[in-house]
Amino acid sequence: GEALEVNREVNCVTDFIHGCEDQLQKLKKQKEKGLLYGIPISIKDHIDCKGHISSGGMVKFLDQVKEEDSVIVHVLKHQGGIPFVKTNIPQTMINYDCSNLIFGQTLNPLNHQKSPGGSSGGEGALIAGGGSILGIGSDVAGSIRLPSSFCGLCGLKPTGNRIRYIPASVLFSHPAMEAAGSMLGPMARDVDSLALCMKALLCQEMFQLDPTVPPIPFNEQVRLRGAPMSPSAHQQS
Q1: Residues with catalytic annotation?
Q2: CATH node for 2-213
Q3: pLDDT tens string 15-34
Q4: Cα dihedral: 114, 93, 193, 151 (round 10)
Q5: The Amidase domain covers which part of the protein (predicted)?
């Protein structure tokens, strides 16, 4: 409901992920409760979800319905998370604004005269507007960090190959994109939520599904020891 309200205001959602209610009912019957049990999670447009498109803001991909969940969506579900919406991006995603000819312009919920940043701008707008508490974006040159900064959120671009994006489409599998090191990462309102998400993602299921990811669990001790980052730097990191 809140996601719908925020979307009406700032146009940040591109699709609602069907089956999320069924998934919640299924989770309730499971004995094992994952680290993200029952948490609704928003997903950036270009990350594959079964039965949905990954448009990249381009008309040429509108008829390509994905047959499988991407690795990260699979792992989020494995940990009890519930992907529930896909969020807007700029066309081709190589842009620091958030607009395309299919879904239109996303606004910054803190100031409708401003951009939410990009390319994970739909994520930034939805979370900052109160329509999601945790989202998955991606970052090559600031695509998580910029919208997090523009919208007053916390975001993390993980170390290279820590949480890889395995692209299915020609656009995103271009050698230049691979060389630039596109990483998937969490966006939320506080650092603790980012840490919980990273801890949940860096699990055995992830390491088995993507053998190129180093099988190193999240190190809580390193985080608790304190990094040389101030809280303001955390918001942009």
Answers
A1: 44, 119, 143
A2: 3.90.1300.10
A3: 999 988 888 898 988 888 99
A4: -10
A5: 5-215
